[in-house]
Amino acid sequence: GAGVSQSPSNKVTEKGKDVELRCDPISGHTALYWYRQSLGQGLEFLIYFQGNSAPDKSGLPSDRFSAERTGGSVSTLTIQRTQQEDSAVYLCASSLSGRETQYFGPGTRLLVL
Amino acid sequence: KQEVTQIPAALSVPEGENLVLNCSFTDSAIYNLQWFRQDPGKGLTSLLLIQSSQREQTSGRLNASLDKSSGRSTLYIAASQPGDSATYLCAGGGGGNKLTFGTGTQLKVEL
């Protein structure tokens, strides 16, 4: 079956612009996660959605970051007024429930100039 | 706050050698421990998941163990092959299964 997909695969933007990153989880997976992988910080958790519950936003680094998940499926991560330190690979993962194996997408490589 | 450490940071071995990658974590209240591999420029591929009630999991040439009391997990790779060359990441699953990742071990298996 299809895995987790993310778009775009690469994004170059100018400092101060807004960007939207998209994640399509595996069909039927109720849990969806966003992570960020950067050279200085390694892989870090950003936000977690589980079913219809309120998302866990505890990993978001600032209020410029937000995410939503529509219809319990597709998720969009939005970064407003991008900064150079936002440059990283943004990874999305989904799992069948909140305790199962997480399956990762290929990531979106974001470069802020 | 959970902290996950992996040693060594890099490892180079000849083909056919058995090897062990180490992962340690500070908070034993984890739900599970997951091992991944990451190839350059790619996403993460799940290798093994050990639930907190389990001691080990096996898949092919891979065996992962979990000792919550000592805060350690190991990934054993038997008869290593050049195709095993990648970065190996361990991650502890906390509340909501949010993963806290180690910094990885970069493995190179040479012909």
**Count of helical stretches of chain A:** 0
| Biggest beta sheet summary of chain B | 6 strands, mixed
- Uncertain segments of chain B: none
Task: Name the poorly predicted regions of chain A.
Answer: none
Q: SSE string of chain B, helix = H, strand = E?
A: EEEEEEEEEEE
N-C termini distance of chain B: 41 Å
- By DSSP (H or I, 4+ residues per run), the number of helices of chain B equals 0
Structural class label of chain B = mainly beta
Largest interface: A-B, 26 and 23 residues
Shape annotation of chain A: globular
Relative helix content of chain B: under 10%
Report on the structure:
The complex is a heterodimer of chains A (113) and B (111). Chain A is mostly beta strands and 113 residues long. Helices cover 0% and strands 49% of the residues of chain A. Chain A contains no helices and ten strands. Chain A has strands at residues 5-7, 10-13, 19-24, 31-38, 42-50, 65-69, 75-79, 88-95, 103-104, 108-112. In chain A, strands 2, 4, 5, 8, 9 and 10 form a six-stranded mixed beta sheet that branches. In chain A, strands 1-3-7-6 form a four-stranded antiparallel beta sheet, with no helix packed on it. In chain A, a hairpin with a 7-residue loop joins β8 (88-95) and β9. The radius of gyration of chain A is 13 Å and the shape is globular. The N and C termini of chain A lie far apart (37 Å). Chain B is mostly beta strands and 111 residues long. Helices cover 0% and strands 58% of the residues of chain B. Chain B has strands at residues 4-7, 10-14, 19-25, 32-38, 44-51, 56-59, 62-67, 72-77, 86-93, 99-101, 105-110. In chain B, a hairpin with a 5-residue loop joins β4 (32-38) and β5 (44-51). The relative contact order of chain B is 0.34. The model of chain B has no long low-confidence stretch (mean pLDDT 94). Chain A binds chain B through residues 4, 31, 33, 35, 42-45, 48, 50, 56, 58-59, 91, 93, 95, 98-107, and chain B through 31-32, 34, 36, 42-46, 49, 51, 89, 91, 93, 96-104.
